[in-house]
């Protein structure tokens, strides 16, 4: 609040100095006037209508020479304006306090709403995370349960299958056992049959042996019979006699032989039959042996299969036992998981209840949020109303500020006396007794007396600074004009005076905080105020240019090729142009965007090194050109859509001096003549505007043509006349003071509402 109030009170300090000191405020008057020490009546303002009525109030007609009446009217009007400004300040303070209060309330509500939202979001996230975790755990448990259930079902199916296989194996074992018993019985029977066949074969072999013996016996008998026949044939002759006997015996023997032959044939047939039977028996025996071998092989394979089945049955029994254990373990696990599932279901139910409660809480919070949102909306509407009131108040402040400056005069004159320096000559005393300052209430701070050859000359201006005034004191008086440049007006401040009177010191100053002149201090105020107004939505852009007018020729002090007063490219032609909106441009002039005081400081240093200076009899280092510093200000408010364009011209004029005293010859003589001609053209323009001439000679000088938009209409101009206290400069001092008095006597500063029938710059035709 302090920082916001300070610029406003600095702007209005010229009006409130008297009240701050507890005394009667001083009232400015044109060309000298009386002071009024009356107590101001109490004036109250109830609204904007009172302010508009005050602004629309017109001065009552007074004679031009009735200074006391005009001063009384001006004093009353200024008192009303002071009361209006105090009411506006109190209203603005109230608006600002309410705005800060609303902003604080809105910030606290926003913080509370943000904390509540964060808490609710955290609680919802935690509940969602818990619900998601429980859901995942439930799904994992269900999946594990389903998996265990499927494994249990697989195990049961495997167990049933094993039982079936075991039953089929047992049935196969029973069948195999029966088959084995049958095969064993058959094998035993076959063994008995084999034994019987073997016994039969043995008997057949024995019978064959006996038959062979009998055959051998028969062969032996046949051989014996042949021998007997041979013996009988040999004895035939001898034994003819006994032939009959022998024939009988022979026939009997033949019969026996025949019977033996039949017996032998029968034996051979029996033998062949027996051989056939033996061969059949051998075949049958071989078949039986093959069957036995096959049965033995089958028996061995069955024994092997039986052993395998026994091993499988043992393994199956062990696996069944392990499956039984697994099934029991799975049943226990299933029971445990069923219990866990029941617990989780209970927890899920509890979490669901908590979630329902959270939903209820969220609904309540959302209801509270909506209420807070409505409250915030209401606060924002009130804040918008307060901002609108602030904008309207700022517009009113600008209007009142401009009205005050118009009352003081759109062209004002200040006078400054520089201190007496060591190299100055004797001036009727150590402090220049030829210059004095009146102390009366009417002329204090506004008058200056000059004694020349015993004659006293008195002059009165808008403000007079004695040789004790500091640079800060000077800037406080002109800070209102700098504020007008930010408000969108064209402002021109120029220092006038003889060479060596302190114009450059007043405008530029010297290094050091207390020695800074009007130009750096004005720029500091502009940048500081523009940064402060950023909080209200204002955005400013600024462009700076610096030139000098030397012998009616424009020179760019910021040109890239310029150094030590000379331009590398001197063939540039600078042309001054004015558009219908009152904006001035100089062709090919260097314009630089500036963003802070550091940028402008470096540009001022560069310009000071490039400026044209010279030595005369009146000053060792005299400025031989008019220095013009121009700052174009463009501002826009994104909240209100307002746009302003202001121009601040700060000019250090070349030193005015009489030709006879300057001692200038040759080229310096031409410089002096050109300087005096341009200063004379400036005075002609000011007097023509003051008289309301149809033709104003702006084109008689490059300086006046360049400053044409800043010397008429609602533009603000301030002439700073600088004088020297040196007694040897009394003549130049009198000339400067008389010229300043003529400018101060002009009625250009009359408010426009009194001259609505004849606005100045709308009827001018520039030559």
From TrEMBL:
<dbReference type="GO" id="GO:0008017">
    <property type="term" value="F:microtubule binding"/>
</dbReference>
<keyword id="KW-0547">Nucleotide-binding</keyword>
<dbReference type="InterPro" id="IPR001752">
    <property type="entry name" value="Kinesin_motor_dom"/>
</dbReference>
<keyword id="KW-0067">ATP-binding</keyword>
<feature type="domain" description="Kinesin motor">
    <location>
        <begin position="410"/>
        <end position="746"/>
    </location>
</feature>
<feature type="coiled-coil region">
    <location>
        <begin position="99"/>
        <end position="151"/>
    </location>
</feature>
<dbReference type="GO" id="GO:0003777">
    <property type="term" value="F:microtubule motor activity"/>
</dbReference>
<dbReference type="InterPro" id="IPR036961">
    <property type="entry name" value="Kinesin_motor_dom_sf"/>
</dbReference>
<comment type="similarity">
    <text>Belongs to the TRAFAC class myosin-kinesin ATPase superfamily. Kinesin family. KIN-14 subfamily.</text>
</comment>
<keyword id="KW-0493">Microtubule</keyword>
<dbReference type="GO" id="GO:0005524">
    <property type="term" value="F:ATP binding"/>
</dbReference>
<dbReference type="GO" id="GO:0007018">
    <property type="term" value="P:microtubule-based movement"/>
</dbReference>
<feature type="coiled-coil region">
    <location>
        <begin position="197"/>
        <end position="389"/>
    </location>
</feature>
<protein>
    <recommendedName>
        <fullName>Kinesin-like protein</fullName>
    </recommendedName>
</protein>
<dbReference type="InterPro" id="IPR027640">
    <property type="entry name" value="Kinesin-like_fam"/>
</dbReference>
<feature type="region of interest" description="Disordered">
    <location>
        <begin position="1"/>
        <end position="33"/>
    </location>
</feature>
<keyword id="KW-0505">Motor protein</keyword>
<dbReference type="Pfam" id="PF00225">
    <property type="entry name" value="Kinesin"/>
</dbReference>
<dbReference type="GO" id="GO:0005874">
    <property type="term" value="C:microtubule"/>
</dbReference>
<dbReference type="InterPro" id="IPR019821">
    <property type="entry name" value="Kinesin_motor_CS"/>
</dbReference>
<feature type="binding site">
    <location>
        <begin position="497"/>
        <end position="504"/>
    </location>
    <ligand>
        <name>ATP</name>
    </ligand>
</feature>
<keyword id="KW-0175">Coiled coil</keyword>
<dbReference type="InterPro" id="IPR027417">
    <property type="entry name" value="P-loop_NTPase"/>
</dbReference>
